[in-house]
Amino acid sequence: MPLDTFAPPQLTNYSGTTGTFLQHEEYKPYNPEFAADERIEGHPKPETRPPHSHTLSLPYPHVPEMCYPYAMSEFDVVGIGYCAVDYLGIVPKYPALDDKVRLTEFTMQGGGLIATAMATVGRLGGRASYIGKVGGDDFGRFTIAELEKESLDTSRVVVDPNGVSQFAFIAVDQETGKRTIFWTPSGVMLEPEEINREDVIAGTVLQVDAHYPRAALQAVTWANEAGIPVVMDAGTFRDGSAEIAGKTDALIMSTPYARQYTGQDDTEKAAQMMFNERRLVSAVTLGDKGCVYVTRDGTFHQPAFKVDVVDTTGCGDVFHGAFSFGLAKGWPIPQIMEFAAAVAAAKCTKLGGRAGIPTLPEVLSFLRTRSANHVWQYL
Fold it and tell me: How far apart are CA 233 and CA 231, in angstroms?
């Protein structure tokens, strides 16, 4: 569907500080040595991997004095967390109990917070690696294959031959694009002993959620030690999430998470409460109202872009992936926030969490007449 013309207001209280930005080498898709179906049948993952380096640094204007090394790494972003398979259908209205309704559109796509975020990085042309765990079933094979379509490295995905991969049924309201998710618990849980330090720190940025809390905590600890910035998708407040958040440099929370964590109903105050000296940014996403975020320069609001919404499934996941992409490129936070909002808005124009993710040229074209921050000047 065509995107409506919408120019967001200029951000206020931003100093306009600039820095020196590292230009990444030309993107070359990573080609895993083993196909998804081969690994699921029991073949080992590759033991040899392209070398990576953390020898180059980048002055980043919004990082505290203990500036992180932004390096020419093997990957732009490494993600560790939740993956799933989504069955999605659009309904003209949500049915009452004991009622029937005909789907007007149906699709099956890969889903999950971090898996979709990494798919976003890949669609934008970034180099991404996904670390997670699936069962040795059709859903597991589908999950890996969908990620490899986006040129992602999946060689670090752990396959449990006897495990059951997670999947969900999602009903999307035709009028509003709002969705209702029916999800299944999975028996596969990624544990710290199943991840490798070198794999985790192979990116310029690490992104995590709290779906595998013990593995995620180990991963962020390694990243902190290596000076790699951590982005957390804090969607659901659960056991272990607070400890992970404490080691996070860019904490992006859903409104329910922020309220549960802080006890504060005012999202702006919640974002301010979660900001501290170690953080690059703390943010609370507000759905169709955009997001509020806090940096060392102050508190800001990034509006959502107006589009013809078909489905909001995965909107937050895509936002987080686009944020990590921009962070890996060394862009200033206001530009990253606006860019991520544009990528998430474009996603909402198609059914499912991934079908509508734009390419980098597409999102830049979208922003040309809408941007308050001219992110393209940093490319």
Answer: 7
In this structure, of 15-24, 93-102, 115-124, the range with the lowest mean pLDDT score is 15-24
C-beta of residue 156 within 8 angstroms of C-beta of residue 358: no
List b or e across 162-193, with b for residues whose CB sees 16 or more CB atoms inside 10 angstroms: ebbbbbbebbbbeeebebeeeeeebebebeee
For every residue of 348-375, DSSP letters joined together read: TTSSSSSTTPPPHHHHHHHHHTT-SS-G
Residue 124 sits at the vertex; the CA angle it makes with 179 and 48, to the nearest 5 degrees, is 110
Write out the two tokens for 144.
């890996």
Strand order in the sheet with 128-131: 128-131, 75-80, 203-208, 230-234, 250-253, 281-285, 291-295, 298-302
Task: Using alpha carbons only, give the angle 238, 242, 244 rounded to the nearest 5 degrees.
Answer: 105
The single-letter code of the amino acid at 200 is V
Instruction: Encode pLDDT of 43-67 as tens digits.
Output: 334 333 333 333 223 333 334 333 3
The C-alpha atoms of residue 177 and residue 96 are separated, in whole angstroms, by 18
DSSP string spanning 52-99? ---------TTS-SS-------SEEEEEES--EEEEEEEESSPPPTT-
Q: What angle do CA 339, 340, 341 make, to 5 degrees?
A: 90
* 220 φ, ψ (degrees, to nearest 5): -70, -30
Q: How far is CA 255 from the centre of its chain?
A: 16
Rounded-to-integer distance, Cα 240 and Cα 16, Å:
37
Indicate the SS3 state at residue 135. Answer: strand
Cα separation, 191 vs 238, whole angstroms: 17
pTM: 0.81
CA distance 312 to 62: 31
318 and 309 in contact (C-beta within 8 Å)? no
CA proximity to 169, closest of 110, 89, 236, 94: 89
Q: Express each pLDDT in 203-220 by its tens digit.
A: 999 999 999 999 999 999
